[in-house]
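thought: user wants a sequence for this fold. calling inverse folding tool.
action: design(structure=
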């Protein structure tokens, strides 16, 4: 049995405080440097920026102002309000303010994580050395996923701050009215920042009711404490009244049938690049040790710590929803970014409960940091990113290549279906958009002839053309496109150009199709684009072919199954061309110059309202008939 540790003297306590303060400040500085090194803006962030721009102009949080119907194409209500406030109060426009505010949220997240980590060392009547805490914080602060999602221009960092704070508060003992109010405020902030945060609000209210029922929280304290959740209800009512939906339009555009095939790959890559093997090993060890006390005792412990139990279950359930239903996320590990600091703290807490010494916890936490360093090594080895996938295997030693080919297969499978697209690719895409688009320009147009531009990837485009109505072909900001189903069980899938090429490529009949045969077959056909086939072939070869890029008959069958179920996250919806044609788009970009062609028959406010109303009814009918 370990002997009690003597209470330190006042001088030792002061020295410990100074060491903790200096070390934490140094770690915060390192986190800041890492976040700035990885900082980027993505095209989708400019969608929110356009909404804020319209709000600044007095048009409200809308994508296209009246006569177009309001549509909620952004996903971070409170983030939009923060950017709006920064612009209104300080004159800083969203592209300049977003990453400063986002990195600030990330630093705040790291600070509260550090505070929680220091509380771990005195739990259960013992005291672990601070070195364990420093190694834990170093593992979290050096994690690439954590650092890069401190930027982007999206609401991710603000959501992580609210969610991490909510989980950590759930582990505080002795529920009180003040604790309930703080916990509810964090849940409300999370729910107002991203729609899935509504699960935290529901869990908070449910847990509070359970505490009241078990006489651990007075009813009056509960009633006062859940008051911040009224903001969530008010926002929900406002959303329904203003936008006409209970959920953002982006949900209709992104979420379709359950897609675990993509979600599980997304999760496996996240675990592989963020030290998941260490997390799972420690969690398994902890579970075995805790289970020894028996199911009844475990059940009582979980009920006794209901806020922590329910908070943990809620966060894991949300992760499971993204994995099994949504299929992951379009962005690289964005929806798991808040799990990085939480998992680091959880591993440290489990280790300190299992081991009283310094060696095992410190080594394990260092191992977590080293295992997650693979996320830094891979982009350093791979060629510069393109809009498709550059395989890793050719650039690693031979003994690593089997694992690298497995990794390449997962990455390419997801990338080609617009899942887990890397932040470097988003950075590159935005740079290409900035190069081809004009600077932001305010322009006055005729009131009786609405200027309209139809395009995909409308983020920066919508920002630089604030006075032009932008039709979003991908549907994030369009109610008709978001609800238009392009899939039907009654329709046989049309062979893709690549499938048509593969079907005739084996001219020598050896049941093996080489890259050269694919290129020759593509050039011989008039119904395909050889350049497109050449671009796609090496990516598909990573998934289906052998290392030399040769397809066998079995590979060909797998390829056909793949194309038969091909999906494109957030890029899958396509309304009929007649829908866009009805608006008679009359704005084009010639070089970096805007050109507006006067219409022979002007499209005015009444016609816009009629087109939207009629086509929205068609979209709902199409969705019901699916």
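)
observation: tool returned 626 residues.
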């Amino acid at each position: 049995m370990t002997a009690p540790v003597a209470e330190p003297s006042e001088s030792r306590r002061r020295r410990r405080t100074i060491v903790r303060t200096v070390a934490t400040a140094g770690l915060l500085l390192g986190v800041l440097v890492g976040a700035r090194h990885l900082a980027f803006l993505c095209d989708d962030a400019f969608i929110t920026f356009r909404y804020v721009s319209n709000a600044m102009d007095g048009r409200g949080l809308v994508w296209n102002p009246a006569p177009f119907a309001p549509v909620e194409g952004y996903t971070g209500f409170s983030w939009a309000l923060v950017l709006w406030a920064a612009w209104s109060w300080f004159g800083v426009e969203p592209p300049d303010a977003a990453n400063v505010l986002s990195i600030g949220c990330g630093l705040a997240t790291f600070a509260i994580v550090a505070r929680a980590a220091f509380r771990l060392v005195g739990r259960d009547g013992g005291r672990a050395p601070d070195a364990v805490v420093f190694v834990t914080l170093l593992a979290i602060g050096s994690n690439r996923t954590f650092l890069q999602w401190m930027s982007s221009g999206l609401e991710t960092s603000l959501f992580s701050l609210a969610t991490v704070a909510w989980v950590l508060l759930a582990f505080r003992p002795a529920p009180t009215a003040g604790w309930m109010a703080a916990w509810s405020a964090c849940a409300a902030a999370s729910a107002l920042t991203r729609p899935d945060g509504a699960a935290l609000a529901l869990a908070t209210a449910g847990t509070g009711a359970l505490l009241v029922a078990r006489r651990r929280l007075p009813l009056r304290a509960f009633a006062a404490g859940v008051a911040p959740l009224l903001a969530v209800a008010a926002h929900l009512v406002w959303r329904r009244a203003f936008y006409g939906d209970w959920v953002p339009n982006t949900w209709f555009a992104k979420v379709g049938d359950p897609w675990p095939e993509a979600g599980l790959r997304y999760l496996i890559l996240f675990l592989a690049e963020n030290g998941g093997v260490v997390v799972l090993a420690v969690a398994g060890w902890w579970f075995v040790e805790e289970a020894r006390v028996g199911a009844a005792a475990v059940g009582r412990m979980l009920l006794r710590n209901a806020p922590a139990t329910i908070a943990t279950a809620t966060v894991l359930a949300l992760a499971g929803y993204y994995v099994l239903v949504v299929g992951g996320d379009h962005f690289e590990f964005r929806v798991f970014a808040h799990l990085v600091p939480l998992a680091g703290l959880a591993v440290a807490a489990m280790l300190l409960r299992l081991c009283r010494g310094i060696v095992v916890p410190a080594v394990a936490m260092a191992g977590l940091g080293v295992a997650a360093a693979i996320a830094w090594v891979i982009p350093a080895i791979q060629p510069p990113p393109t809009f498709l996938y550059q395989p890793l295997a050719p650039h690693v030693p031979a003994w690593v290549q089997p694992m690298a080919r497995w990794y390449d297969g997962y990455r390419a499978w997801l990338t080609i279906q617009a899942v887990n697209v890397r932040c470097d690719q988003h950075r590159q895409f935005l740079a290409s958009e900035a190069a081809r688009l004009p600077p932001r320009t305010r322009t006055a147009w005729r009131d009786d002839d609405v200027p309209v531009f139809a395009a995909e990837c409308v983020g920066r485009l919508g920002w630089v053309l604030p006075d032009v109505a932008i039709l979003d072909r991908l549907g994030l900001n369009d109610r008709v496109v978001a609800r238009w189903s392009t899939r039907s069980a009654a329709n046989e899938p049309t062979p893709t150009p690549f499938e048509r090429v593969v079907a005739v490529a084996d001219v020598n009949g050896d049941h093996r199709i080489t890259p050269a045969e694919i290129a020759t077959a593509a050039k011989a056909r008039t119904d395909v684009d050889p350049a497109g086939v050449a671009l796609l072939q090496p990516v598909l070869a990573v998934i289906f072919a052998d290392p030399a890029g040769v397809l066998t008959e079995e590979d060909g069958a797998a390829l056909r199954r793949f194309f038969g179920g091909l999906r494109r996250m957030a890029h899958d919806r396509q309304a009929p061309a007649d829908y866009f044609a009805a608006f008679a788009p009359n704005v084009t970009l010639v070089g970096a110059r805007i050109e507006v062609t006067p219409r022979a028959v002007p499209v005015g406010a009444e016609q816009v309202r009629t087109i939207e109303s009629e086509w929205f009814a068609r979209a709902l009918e199409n969705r019901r008939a699916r």
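thought: summarizing for user.
answer: Here is the designed sequence. The first strand starts at residue 452 and ends at 455.
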